[in-house]
Each structure stands twice: as structure tokens, then as C-alpha cells.
Amino acid sequence: MAAPAEAAAAAALSQPEAAAGSAASAVVLPERLQRREAERQQGVERQRQKKEAQVVKEEQSEFFLAALAREREAVEALLAAGALEEAAARLQALQKLLTDSVRFLAPYEVRQGQEAVARLQGELVARREQLQPKKKFAFRALKKEAAPGSAPRPAEPAPPDLAAPDPDLAEGESGGPPLCGFSGARDEELELGAAELLQRDVLLSELRGCRVRLRGNPNTLRVRDCSGCTVLCGPVSTSVLVDGCSDCLLAMACQQLRTHRTHDCRVYVQVTSRAVIEACSDVSFAPYSWSYPGIERDFESSGLDRNRNNWNLVDDFDWLATDKPSPNWSLIPEQERMALLKVKFNQKKRVKLAQGLWLMNWFSVFAGILVFSMGLFLKIELRKRSEVMDNSESHFVPNSLILMGILSCAFNGFAGKICYDSLDPAKFAKWKPLLKPYLALCCVFNMLIFFVALICFLMRGSLESTLAQGLKNGMKFYRDTDTPGRCFMKKTIDMLQIEFKCCGNNGYKDWFEIQWISNRYLDFSSKEVKDRIKSNVDGRYLVDGVPFSCCNPSSPRPCIQYQVTNNSAHYSYDYQTEELNLWRRGCREALLNYYSGMMSSMGAVILLVWLFEMSVMVGLRLLHTSLESIANPEDPECESEGWVLENSLKDTFKSALENLKKLGKFNQVEAGAEGAEGEEGGKTPAITTVS
Predict the structure, then answer these.
(1) Hey, which of 21-25, 232-236, 534-538 has the most confident mean pLDDT?
(2) DSSP summary character for residue 382
(3) For residue 625, what are the domain limits?
(4) What is the DSSP letter of 479?
(5) Are residues 446 and 374 part of one domain?
(6) CB of 239 within 8 A of CB of 219?
(7) Are the C-beta atoms of 353 and 423 separated by less than 8 Å?
(8) Phi and psi for 192 in degrees, rounded to 5?
(9) Could you please report the per-residue DSSP string of 407-468?
(10) I need a surface site. Which of 77, 322, 344, 663 has the fewest CB within 10 A?
């Protein structure tokens, strides 16, 4: 009984120990899981902190909006206090902040910031006008001269108050008058220099067909309601606004570009933020490529980064789709961009270019003498054989060569004088106004030379028909040795056949079809003569013979010129198998090869002359533009830039067509325009200039 009792007690003691062991293992397992969960949470927290550490506080829209509100209040307070310089500095810093923040802001936030900055700029300009003393400001009107016999114009009304706000001003413009700019001009060359533009606000408005060059660093630029204009501007410190323009070419560098209500324009831009367009169509963009002496200095004063250009990043507020590009703007293909063959020059290079062009022009004079001589020689050769050419034969080619030779001597002699005088600025000044018309004439002259060269190669067809008809008529008159005015034809054709070793028009059988023996030398009492005359309806004496001049003296057999097709009339003779001792080639082919070869050689020479003339014209254009772009004429040693075409080929061709249209309308009275001017109170276009 004792043993079972002890076993039961031992079992009872072992049960609590087992329960305690399982409880201990149950406690250890949750602690391990909790430790792993804690480590995971710590890792997630570390990743979050690392990610937050990588986000710069300044690159948050909340920070930008707060900074915008803060700076706006500060600028408004400074404007109210009259601290304009400090307000301008803070406004420029705000503009830079907006430019740097564009990459992480939403489009509506960018637009909000641009509107705020533009409004503050307008308030700054208006406040300046209020606090600073009024400057003398006036419009200079370009009045048209009255036509003879026309009624005098009524007196012009006084101009409206310039300080009054314009309700039609575009977004961001102030109501005060512009400090400088141009307005209302037509077909003018307008230009402002660095001293006139430095940190000033520029307005170009209502220009038509003008070319504007702004070489300097303005503070802002506004281009309004312009059509058919070319506007080239240096670096702008802050913003550029283009509003209501059409068919224009614009080139500018700026911090901010806004384009409103603009159509069919080409914009060459360097912008540090993203360009903005609204209500626009057919606007194309390309990188800013205009250059002029001193542009690097203007970039430094403007504060723009020359290496930063977002010219191809454009926000269209009228196109919200992100998966498709906007149809309202595009990029200009590289081959259609402006400034063709731009070259930098210093004084040494300009002198070498002028000296080389002077020498090339005199070589071109000798080339012109050569062209004149070729035309004279060709004319003499055609005159020598005019009897065997049709009356419709024209001396267009030799006359054109003679004319081109004379013009080449005149043009290149004049160009040589210009190149020689270009070494002296005082002498070159008198030629400067004539260079553009002269280059235009040179372009037309070179086109004419190329056309004449092509005509030399393409005249074979008309020459062939002329010779065919002329030779046919000449062979008919071969027998008329007693007829006044035709008695020389026999000698002419005989000498022609002997010289060119030919026979007939197309061949010796052409003589079988005509009566080439004069009736004076025919015995009409002979039965043979009568039978031959009666054998054809025309009553002509036709024989199978040829004139003596068709005989080939190199043939070993005596010449058989009569009864050529009669084998029985000659001993050991077969005209079908044996080679005849007559010239087989027709005179038309012989003359055609002679003149065609001559004109082809002349055409090749004229093409070489054309290439040489083109190189001279290109060099003269480079010399002209390099001298014209000198920033300081009093310093001849300064650098400059030359180019062949300031715009692309497409724009240049378009501009040339417009100029031709203007020349065509030069003597026409535009009644509609005159009536519109009368309705506006007799106002004439005015150009606003620097006050």
C-alpha cells in the first residue's frame, strides 16, 4: 500500500512543474515577437525620418505660399513707405524664388505666383511715377507729306492724359506711361542702346512691319498688339509679356515669359522658369541665339544664368491633358532657326576679310571680262552661219553673256571700292546706307548668272529645231545662184559641208529630194531631162546625186557624186554594201554638236563664275554685318559678329516677299487707311521714343 501512495504523490508533484515549464515557454515567445515588432517599427521610423530629411523645407508648396504672402506684405509696406529701391530688391528676390520653385509647384500655384509678382511690379512702376518728378515725355509723330493738290489735314487734337489708366492693359502692366519704347510705327528700323535700356521698363505697342533691336538690359519688356514685326532684345532682368501679337519673330532672354492672345509667332527664348501661353495658337519656340557685342555684360547685369534655359518647357493654360502635347505650340526644327553662318570677328579678322574681298572682286572683274568675251565669240559664230538658221533663231544666250559680263565688271568694281574703303571708318560711313540695296542687287545678279548658265545647257532643243529648219531652207536655195539675195547660198553650204565634213540636213539622201541644180544648166531639149521633170508632180529635176562638197577626200576611190544609187553606172560598185566616199553625217548633227559643245563649255565656266560671285557676296555680307554690329564705332578694335542671314531661310524668304509687295504698293494710295485715320480724328502714327 505504501508504494502506490508514494507513486501518486510523485505524480502530483510533477504536474505543477510541467505546468510551470509550459507557462515559462509561453511567456518567452511573445517577448521575442514584441522585440521583432519593435525593431520593425524602429526601422520604419528611421526610413520615414530619412525620407523627411531628404525633403528640403524650401521645396514645399506650403513654404512657398507662406513666403509669397510674407514677401507680398513686405513689398506693399515698403511701397507705402516710399522705399522703392528696397521694394525693388525684395521683389526681384521674390521673382527669383518663384523661378527656382517652378519645378515642384502645381501649375495653378505657378500662375498664382506669377500674377502676384506681376501685380507688384505694376504697383512698383506706378509708385515710382507718383513719387519721382515728372520727366518731359512726348510723342514724335512721323507725319506723311501731303500729296500735291490735296486738301490740308485738320489740326490734330491734343493727346490724352498719359497718366490715365488704360482699361485694355494686359495683365501685369501698370497704368502709367512707359519709360521708353516705340508705338504706332510702320515699316521702320527701330533701335535702342544699352544706356537707354539699362533696368528700364520697355513697351512696344501697335507696331506694323517693323524691325526692333534692343541691345541692352531692360528691367521688363511688354510687346502689345504688334503684327509682322521682328523684335530682338537683350537679356531682361525680370519678365516679358507678349500680348495680342501675330506673325512676329521674337528673341529675348528673361526670367519669366508670358504669352497671351498671340498667333503665328516664332519665339527664340532663354527663360529660367517655364514659359506660359494662354489663348494662343501656332506659337513655336527655339533656344535664344541672338548675339551682339556686349551681351555677356548685359547678362551679368541682368542676373540671368546663361547656362540655364527652359526654352522647351511651356505651360499651356488652355490645355490640361497630360498624355497628349498641346496643339497650340511647337518646337522650331533646327534647320529652320535663325542666324545662318554666324561668325565672330575682331579687328584683325575684319581687315583680312576686307583685303581678301578686295582681291576677289578684282578677280571677278577679270571673270566678267571673260564672260563678255565668250558672249561676243558666240555671237560672232552664230552670225557667221545665220543663213542656215531659221529666222526665229534668237541671240538670247550671247546677248545675255555680254550683259552679264558688263554687269559683273561694274558690280565687282564697285564692291572692290567698298571693301577698300571699309578699312577706313570715315570712308566706309558713306557706303553704309547703300550696302543693303547693293547686296539685294547682287543677289538678283547672281540669280541671273545661274539662269544664264542653265540656259547654256538647255538650249540644245531649240537650237536643233532652228538648225533643222534653216538648213532645209538653205538647201532649197542652193540652186538660186542668179537670184539676188540668194546667190551666196551655194558657197555658204559648200563651205559648211567641207568645214564640218557633213552632207545634207540629216544625211546625203536629203539632196535626192530637192532640185539643187539650177535650170540655167539644164538642157530642156534632152529627153532624160524632160522625163525626170515629168516624173514628179512638182516639176522638179530630181537626181540621185549630191554636190561636190559632200565628197570625202580621204576615200581612195574617185568621188561618185552622180547616180549614187545606180550600181550599173559604175564599175565594181554597190552602194548598199560598199562604203560610200561621201560624208554620211548630216550638217544639222554636226552644227548641233559644235554649238552645243561650245555652250556647254561656256555654261561650265559661267557656273564657276557664279560660285565665285556667290562667295564674294557671302563675304561682303559678313563684312557688312560685322562692321554694322560693332558696339562702339569709336573703338575699331572691339569684337563684333557677322552673319549671312539674321533669320532662318523661311523667315527671310517671307520677309522678302513682303518687301516686294510693299514695293508694288508704293505708288498706290491706300484709301481705306486714309478713311480710318480720318475717323480717328486725323491722327498719324507716332513713335514713342526715350524721354
Answers:
(1) 232-236
(2) H
(3) 345-462+594-644
(4) G
(5) yes
(6) no
(7) no
(8) -130, 145
(9) HHHHHHHHHHHHHHHTTSHHHHHHHHHHHHHHHHHHHHHHHHHHHHHHHHHHTHHHHHHHHH
(10) 322
pLDDT at position 671, please?
44
Distance CA 420, CA 351 (A): 10
Q: Which residues are within 8 A (CB) of 239 and not within 5 positions of it... i.e. 6 or more apart?
A: 95, 114, 117, 118, 121, 172, 220, 221, 254, 255, 256, 257, 258
104 part of a folded domain: yes
For residues 65 and 633, what is the distance between their CA atoms, to the nearest angstrom? 50
- Tell me, yes or no, whether 207 and 125 share the same domain: no
What does the pLDDT look like over 137-146, one tens digit per residue?
Answer: 444 444 444 4
Range 644-652 average pLDDT: 63
- Average pLDDT value for residue range 408-434: 83
Q: How far apart are CA 569 and CA 566, in angstroms?
A: 6
Taking the CA atoms of 526, 531, 536 and 539 in sequence, report the sign of the dihedral they define.
positive
Q: Quickly tell me which residue has 579678322 as its cell.
A: 349
Place of cell 497628349: 324
Sign of the Cα pseudo-torsion (452, 453, 458, 459, in order): positive
204 by DSSP, 3-state: which? Answer: strand
Our CA dihedral for 638, 639, 645, 647, rounded to 10 degrees, sits at -100
In percent, the amount of the chain with pLDDT more than 70 equals 76
Match 521683389 to its residue by C-alpha cell.
Answer: 91
pLDDT digits (tens, 9 = 90+) for 556-599: 888 888 888 888 888 888 777 666 788 889 999 999 999 999 99
Residue 240: per-residue pLDDT: 93
Angle between helices 107-131 and 84-101 (to 10 degrees): 170
In this predicted model, what pLDDT tens digit does every residue of 253-272 receive, in sequence order?
A: 999 999 999 999 989 899 98
Total count of residues recorded for the chain: 691
List the 314-316 sheet strands across, edge first: 180-183, 201-205, 220-224, 239-243, 256-260, 275-278, 314-316
Looking at the fold, whether 319 and 233 belong to one and the same domain comes out as: yes
- 243 residue type, one letter: D
Instruction: Specify the pLDDT at position 341.
Output: 59
Express the helix, strand and coil content of the chain in percent, nearest 5 each: 50, 15, 35
Positive or negative CA dihedral for 648, 215, 311, 202?
negative
CA distance linking residue 197 with residue 193, whole number of Å: 6
Give yes or no: residues 197 and 306 share one domain: yes
| Alpha helices, H only, 132-210 | 194-197
Pairing of strands 201-205, 139-141: unpaired
Q: Cα–Cα distance between 576 and 434 in angstroms, integer? A: 73
The Cα 640–Cα 630 span in angstroms is: 5
Instruction: Mention every residue, 6+ apart, whose C-beta is less than 8 A from residue 399.
Output: 375, 379
Looking up residue 282, the CATH number of its domain turns out to be: 2.160.20.70
Query: And the C-alpha cell for 229?
Result: 514685326
Cell of 136: 518731359
Burial class (CB in 10 A: 0-12, 13-18, 19+), 347: middle
Dist. CA 441–CA 460, nearest whole Å: 30
Return d(Cα 265, Cα 282) in angstroms, integer: 7
* C-alpha grid cell, residue 83: 522705399
Report if residue 156 sits inside a domain: no
